[in-house]
Design goal:
Mean pLDDT: 82
Largest sheet: 5 strands, mixed
Radius of gyration: 20 Å
Number of domains: 2
Strand content: 15-25%
Low-confidence stretches: 8-17, 31-39, 42-53, 218-224
Order of helices and strands: HEHEEHEEHEEHEHE
Shape: globular
Helix content: 25-40%
Number of helices: 6
Distance between the termini: 71 Å
Structural class: alpha/beta
């Protein structure tokens, strides 16, 4: 009798590569965020470090950004105590503040506290006035962030690591040192992701010449681009 051989394993090559990338990035982002590995989260998680991938910031600036996010916890605690849900994401020493606080006074106090934090060059205060978002809302935001990142990986005409993606209440905030073309393309891709309510640009704009030269300056002279924006 001819011995039977087990069927050959299914080849991953038969599955669309883009689907695998998208699913993997989205799942890892959601898992990391829910595990508390997102940037600083007051009132729901803890501060986590960023991994140094290929980046348009200097290594020193990346370390400064991590320090800003880590210090933010105590600064915000001093300013408003346990009131509210506040995220701080630092990119090239610009502190993006998102989340919810109960009063306008709290919003002002948080921004002032971050402005006094060592190494912070500027702040972008996007705090909303109202009740803290729910765990379900934050999970949805994490999933949207994963989908946007996956879409950047899928795109063939941009560098995915040039973008920092933050999502709050369905609003996607985009940070990074990018050219005008990359900024427009990044916004267009993010707007096409399911669940995105609005896209806010918090970029630093560099020229095509700077990009070609591989510029990794501290960005003090960079032209800011923020808005829906």
């Amino acid at each position: 009798m001819t011995p039977r051989h087990p069927p050959p394993p299914l080849s991953l090559e038969r599955r669309p590569l883009r689907g695998l990338v998208a699913a993997s990035v989205a799942a890892l982002t959601l898992a990391g965020t829910l595990a508390g590995c997102a940037p600083l989260l007051i009132g729901g998680a803890v501060a986590g470090g960023a991994v140094m991938f290929a980046d348009r910031r200097t290594s020193g600036t990346q370390i400064e950004d991590q320090g800003i996010e880590l210090k933010a916890g105590s600064r915000i605690k001093e300013a408003i105590g346990d009131r509210g849900h506040v995220n701080v994401t630092s990119y090239n020493r610009t502190a993006l503040i998102t989340g919810e606080v109960p009063t306008e006074a709290d919003k002002v106090a948080v921004e002032a506290a971050m402005a006094r934090t060592e190494n912070v060059r500027s702040t972008l205060n996007e705090l909303a006035i109202g009740f803290p978002s729910s765990l379900v809302d934050r999970s949805n935001d994490a999933l949207i962030t994963g989908k946007v990142k996956a879409s950047y990986v899928d795109a063939r005409d941009i560098f995915a690591n040039a973008y920092k993606v933050v999502t709050e209440r369905g609003i996607v905030y985009l940070m990074g040192r990018v050219t005008e073309r990359e900024a427009d393309r990044g916004v267009a891709i993010a707007r096409g992701v399911a669940g995105v309510q609005k896209v806010v640009k918090a970029f630093e704009i560099i020229t095509e010449a700077e990009l070609a030269q591989g510029s990794t300056t501290r960005g003090d002279a960079a032209k800011p681009a923020s808005g829906p924006r």
